[in-house]
Amino acid sequence: MSTVLETEEHQALRAAVAALGKRYGRDYMTTAIREGSHTDELWAEAAKLGYLGVNLPEEYGGGGGGMAELSIVLEELGAAGSPLLMMIVSPAICGTVIARFGTDEQKQRWLPGLADGSLTMAFGITEPDAGSNSHRITTTARRDGTGPDADWLLTGRKVFVSGVDIADATLIVGRTEDARSGNLKPCLFIVPREAPGFGRNQIDMELHAPEKQFELVLDDVRLPADALVGDEDAGLLQLFAGLNPERIMTAAFGIGMGRFALSKAVEYARTRQVWKAPIGSHQAIAHPLATAHIDLELSRLMMQKAARLYDDGDDVGAGEAANMAKYAAGEACVKAVDQAVHTLGGNGLTREYGLASLITASRVARIAPVSREMILNYISHQTLGLPKSY
Question: What are the φ and ψ backbone dihedral angles of 292, each rounded to 5 degrees?
Fold first, then answer.
């Protein structure tokens, strides 16, 4: 893929991460899935090389970069067949929120570990009855007493929370009551994994990945006053400061997966000969692969735009671009995987070529963290100014 729009530093980062990914590859990932283990070795090496915390502040051990750099890391690992899903959650969402809005104590407690990979944090927002509607979140936090030092009691449920079993804590989106209006407002809380009342149940998924999905049950989880991240009155701003990086990184996840599938298909089409010429010489094979390549390139351009806007501090502009990037990458990923499997025919369904499992995995970029339909709602309402449909 062309990198002429990137700086020399970005090109060097891309090449270095690609080399790391190549050393592990798809076999490493599928072995971890088959054995029920985690990708600890790749996570540790990526951390040691400074890739996991490339977006976090230098004063806390990070690389001092932003989403532009972190998205390169995830995309290239994905293009090698070994994406690290927790990168979307731990450094991108949680690390960004804490770096931007956390107290000095929270930054010192969490950011160095998130940057060097020794600590990981999960993120819980989705609820069984709320889906993509963050305004319907029912997980609530109330003070146990009066005064700024009073404990919080957190109660509610979350679903589809990745990696809770390996995360040291989970950043939970809850709601507190506004003393002035009585309305509930979103707030973010850091909940340690072993906090009393913090229960988890693994969800049995058809999607096979090293990172497991969990349902969380919070039964009056007692948290200290300083578990609240940032300002209680700035919850919505803080929440979206984490959701835009999530969308950018999901785009990187989808683009990387699409590139991996496309590369396998191109290699196969270049060498597979049925009649007198490689099948890639036939336009019925070549043109859909070329279209998939174009779609992935266009998705990456929008992802780069979103990352640039976010890193420049334009949260509004980044919100629009991040949603567009996530939508485009999800569509491009699904189509690239589908075309890759179809190009290989029966071989596309074998374990040897490692593409069939991506049929399910590629849907993630369309569904999570927000459905493509909700993105279309956002664009039609926020960008085009059409009446709101919900």
Answer: -60, -40
**How would residue 4 be classed by pLDDT, with cut points 50, 70 and 90?**
low
Question: Which one-letter amino acid corresponds to residue 261?
Answer: A
Query: What is the reported pLDDT for 238?
Result: 80
Span 11-56, pLDDT tens digits = 999 999 999 999 999 999 999 999 999 999 999 999 999 999 999 9
CB neighbour list of residue 193: distance below 8 Å, 6 or more residues apart = 164, 167, 168, 169, 170
- Return the closest-CA partner of residue 361 out of 327, 389, 336, 382: 336
Separation CA 206–CA 126 (nearest Å): 19
Q: Quick one: pLDDT band at residue 132, thresholds 50, 70, 90?
A: low
Half-sphere exposure of 56 (CA within 13 A, CB side): 31
DSSP state for residue 386 in the 8-state scheme: P
What DSSP line would sit under 296-356, residue for residue? Answer: HHHHHHHHHHHHHHHHTT-HHHHHHHHHHHHHHHHHHHHHHHHHHHHHHGGGGGSTTTT-T
Residue 103 one-letter amino acid: T
Cβ neighbours of residue 71 under 8 Å, at least 6 residues apart? 248, 249, 251, 252, 303, 304, 307
Residues found in the chain: 390
Q: Among positive and negative, which fits the CA dihedral 384, 387, 389, 390?
A: positive
Q: What's the rounded Cα separation, in Å, for the pair 225 and 241?
A: 22
pTM for this model (two decimals): 0.95
